[in-house]
Structures are given as C-alpha cells and as structure tokens.
C-alpha cells in the first residue's frame, strides 16, 4: 500500500493538472466570445450581398448564365474533379470535434476517390499524412484566429482551381455549432450554386417590386464580383463557426477533465486520511506495546 508521502505527491500532481484544465477552459471561453463577436460584426455585410444577388436574379430581364451557377436546365456539369475543403483544429483536447470532421470528409473519398482535398488545421493535415491521403501541400492555413484576410486567400485559391477547370464542384466540411450545447460536422456544396439558393425567399418575407437595375460594365461582371465576395463570406463564416465549435468542445472536455480531477483528489484525500489514521494507530500500538514490555521488564527485575 502507498504511504502518505506518495499519496500527497499524487494529490499535488492531480491538482496541478486541474489548474491547467481550468486555465484552458477559461481561455477557450474567452476565444469563443471574441469569435462570436467578430462574426456578428461581419454577418450583416454578407447577408446584404446575398440579398443583392437575389435582387439581380429577380430583376434581370433575361436568363442569367454564370459559371458559379448551375445551368438553367440543371444539365450535367462538364467533366472534372471534386474538391473538398476540410476544416479541423490545430490541436486536440477537444473531444470528438476533429474526429467528426474527418469522418464527414472521408465520405467523399468513398464516393469520389479522386477528390482533391484542401485541409485547414494541423490535426487534419497530420491525419491525412499518416493515412497516405494526398492533399494540397501548399494549402497550409491555421485554424486558430480565423480572419477575413485568410478567408479571401482561401477563396481566391479555390476559385482559381475552379476557373481553370481543374475542379467543377467544391464542397466544404466544417463544424456547425447549433447552440452552446450541441455541434455537428456538416458538408455543404460551396460552388456551383443552384439558383434556388438565392431565389428562394424567407417564409415571412413579403414580395417586393424592385426597380430595374442598370449593370455596369455588365451583369456578368457585377454578378461575378458579388458571388466571389459571397463565397469569401461563406468560407469566413464556416471558419468562425468551426472555431467556435472547437472552443465549445474544448470547454466541455476541460470541464469534464476538471470534474474528474476533483473526484480523483477527493478519493485520494479519503485514502490519505485512512493511511494516515492507520499509521497513527500503528504508532500508538507500537508505543503502547513498548510501554507494556518495559513495564513488565521492570517488574521482573524488581522481583
């Protein structure tokens, strides 16, 4: 059985670990609040872009043809590859957050073995390297501290691949934080869009009669610019949403770790008290036995 010194050292070790998990919980909660604030500040701008694209669809006097939209008759796209943008974290200790995103991304490999992967986050890149799955090596973006500038660079690279015909569909796998208690890894088609993506109206939205637009230099140029900005905003919102889900998952994991550490400390303290009490009892017994032996020896010497 362990002695009191070993148990005290064990308690101190667990308490030191608990301090780390508590600190990580606080750091993640701060990052989560900041990321949500940044997203709330930029969301109205990209919602406005989507509204304007919807107006283009409604007011244009001819069928809109655009490389970022499916053909009007939903004809088959020209042959080409699939691309998948996978958003993971840079590190673990976040529960099943990374595993769920990887599992969702691997569905594309089963259905489309030639899928070209673009991976954000060191955890995902490590997984792909370890399993021998090829991905775009030059696409080394961090998942921490998502920003509009990084979203612009990512969207620019993906659109370059798309415009050159190397890929004809781009999907994005990220983690959607539905609320503070639940999150889910989802896959969405980034481009091309179906027209209904912009044309459908909200249930409570009242029909509005728009005036005719005059597009300069052309409808295609204006629409391309608006859609490219919208794609950038879509990617940015996915990065921030994933980052929020990561921090939320890490908070949950660290909270559980701190609770488990506290339970272990309480158990060790009970064990420590028992060992200490046993040690004291043994010392008292030894002293009492020694005293009785000494007393007996003294009586024998007198007699």
Structural commentary:
This protein is an alpha/beta fold. It folds into 2 domains: 4-19 and 257-302, Helix Hairpins (Orthogonal Bundle); 41-255, Pyruvate Kinase, Chain: A, domain 1 (3-Layer(aba) Sandwich), CATH 3.40.1380. The chain has 6 helices and 4 strands. It has a 4-stranded mixed sheet with strand order 2-1-3-4. Helix 1 (4-59) runs antiparallel to helix 6 (219-302) and helix 4 (148-163) crosses helix 6 (219-302). The radius of gyration is 31 Å and the shape is elongated.
What coarse outline follows from CA principal-axis ratios?
Answer: elongated
Q: What is the fold-level CATH name, i.e. the topology of the largest domain?
A: Pyruvate Kinase, Chain: A, domain 1
The end-to-end distance, rounded to whole angstroms, is 44 Å
How many individual domains? Answer: 2
Main beta sheet strand tally, sense and closure: 4 strands, mixed
Q: Classify the helix fraction into a percent range.
A: 55-70%
Q: Order of strands across the widest beta sheet?
A: 2-1-3-4
CATH homologous superfamily identity of the largest domain? ATP synthase, F1 complex, gamma subunit
Q: How many strand segments?
A: 4
- Estimate the mean pLDDT confidence: 81
Output the helix-strand order. HEHEHHEEHH
**CATH architect. name of the largest domain:** 3-Layer(aba) Sandwich
Low-confidence spans: pLDDT under 50, at least 5 residues? none
CATH class category name of the largest domain: Alpha Beta
In DSSP terms (H or I, runs of 4 or more residues), the helix count works out at 6
Structural class: alpha/beta
Portion of residues in beta strands equals 5-15%
Report the radius of gyration as a whole number of Å: 31 Å
């Amino acid at each position: 059985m362990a002695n009191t010194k070993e148990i005290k050292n064990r308690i101190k070790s667990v308490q030191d670990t608990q301090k780390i998990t508590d600190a990580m919980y606080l750091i993640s909660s701060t990052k989560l609040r900041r990321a949500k604030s940044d997203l709330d500040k930029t969301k109205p701008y990209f919602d406005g872009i989507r509204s304007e694209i919807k107006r283009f669809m409604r007011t244009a006097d001819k069928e809109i043809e655009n490389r970022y939209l499916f053909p009007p008759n939903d004809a088959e796209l020209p042959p080409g590859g699939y691309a998948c943008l996978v958003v993971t974290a840079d590190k673990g200790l976040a529960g099943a957050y990374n595993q769920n995103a990887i599992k969702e991304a691997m569905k594309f490999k089963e259905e489309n073995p030639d899928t070209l992967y673009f991976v954000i986050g060191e955890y995902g890149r490590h997984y792909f390297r370890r399993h021998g799955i090829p991905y775009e090596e030059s696409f080394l973006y961090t998942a921490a501290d998502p920003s509009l500038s990084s979203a612009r660079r990512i969207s620019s690279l993906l659109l370059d691949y798309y415009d050159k015909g190397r890929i004809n569909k781009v999907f994005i796998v990220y983690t959607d934080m539905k609320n503070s208690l639940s999150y889910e890894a989802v896959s969405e088609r980034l481009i091309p869009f179906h027209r209904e993506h912009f044309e459908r109206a909200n249930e409570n939205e009242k029909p509005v009669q728009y005036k005719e637009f005059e597009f300069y230099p052309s409808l295609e140029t204006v629409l391309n610019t608006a859609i490219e900005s919208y794609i950038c905003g879509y990617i940015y919102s996915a990065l921030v949403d994933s980052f929020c889900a990561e921090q939320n998952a890490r908070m949950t994991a660290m909270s559980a770790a701190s609770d488990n550490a506290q339970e272990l400390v309480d158990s060790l303290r009970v064990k420590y008290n028992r060992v200490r009490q046993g040690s004291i009892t043994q010392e008292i017994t030894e002293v009492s036995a020694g005293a009785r032996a000494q007393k007996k020896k003294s009586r024998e010497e007198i007699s």
